[in-house]
Automatic annotation (TrEMBL):
Taxonomic placement: Bacteria, Pseudomonadati, Pseudomonadota, Betaproteobacteria, Burkholderiales
Domain of life: Bacteria
Entry-linked InterPro entries: Dabb, Dimeric_a/b-barrel
Pfam families: Dabb (PF07876)
Residue ranges of domain Stress-response A/B barrel in the record: 2-98
SUPFAM superfamilies in alphabetical order: Dimeric alpha+beta barrel (SSF54909)
Protein name as it appears in the record: Dabb family protein
Amino acid sequence: MIKHIVMWKLKDFAEGADRATNARKMKERLDACKNIVPGMFAFEVALAQPGLEATYDVVLYSEFADKEALKAYGEHPTHHALKPFFGAIRDERQCMDYNI
């Protein structure tokens, strides 16, 4: 099984909206990717919360059966369609995939 974790730090203002608004839009769009491919076991999107320590604005935690399932997710049209918006609003992105 592979864990796939991605974190984004967003720009203060992009695409006509502030950071908080874009974070909510990003979460809504990512949530639409849940269960889009076989072999996806877990898929959770969270936003930084006031009062709790956070250095990034949005995090994705997901688990896949294997590399093939993760690759299918990355190539899926629903996931691929997110890239232009995410690229426009993000300041930084960090990703880590690892076997468990």
